[in-house]
Amino acid sequence: MKEAAIFTNEAEFRVWFEKNLSRFGIREIFLSQEVCPDYVVIMKDGSPAKVEAELFAINFKYHHHDPAKADFIVACYSRTDEVNGVPVKAVHRLWCFDPDPLELLSPSDPLKDDEAELLSAIHQSGGISLSALLQGKLGGDQQIWVRMPPEKIATIPRGRIDDSLLNILTQPAKEWLRKYHHL
């Protein structure tokens, strides 16, 4: 049985990484630090390497790390094989799935029972919160993560924002968003 490697912060990922060096072709850690590179390691062939650990590989770019200071990036999640010219060794690959748009339904077509039930509930309550969609028949076991570029995050005003999706986020969630660039 394969072990699941799912983390919500870089510190958790680094603990797991340090216990699973062989998965990345590493024999041992020579130096571990907080500044870039996070590690200087000895590879299985005996050569030294400078390694930067990131939860999301793209954070290497957003943290403004110098590509000359890392031989490769180890990441829990990545969409690419390199960031700023630095190779990435990722535990999980992130893929963007953009299905072809569905054919529009005619307004005169009858509603299915589930559609009628959902619209009735929305109408009777005067609206519906996104979190309500996680319950009942519409609930699922997956999460959707949307990447937020740092420049977009920087435009989020401090304090309360009227009529904004960001009002439902707790302060720790907003801090997580600013740190990891995903919502």
Report a brief summary of the structure.
The protein is of the alpha/beta class and 183 residues long. 23% of the residues lie in helices and 21% in strands. It has two domains: 10-93, no CATH class; 130-183, no CATH class.
SSE layout and pairings?
Elements: H1 10-19, E1 26-32, E2 39-43, E3 48-56, H2 59-62, E4 72-78, E5 82-83, E6 86-93, H3 113-125, H4 150-154, H5 171-180
Parallel strand pairs: 3-4, 4-6
Antiparallel strand pairs: 1-2, 2-3, 5-6
The helix content is: 10-25%
Unreliable parts? none
Mass-distribution shape:
elongated
Q: What structural class do helix, strand and pairing data support? A: alpha/beta
- Strand arrangement across the biggest beta sheet: 1-2-3-4-6-5
- Range of strand content: 15-25%
Rg calculated over all Cα atoms: 22 Å
Domain module count: 2
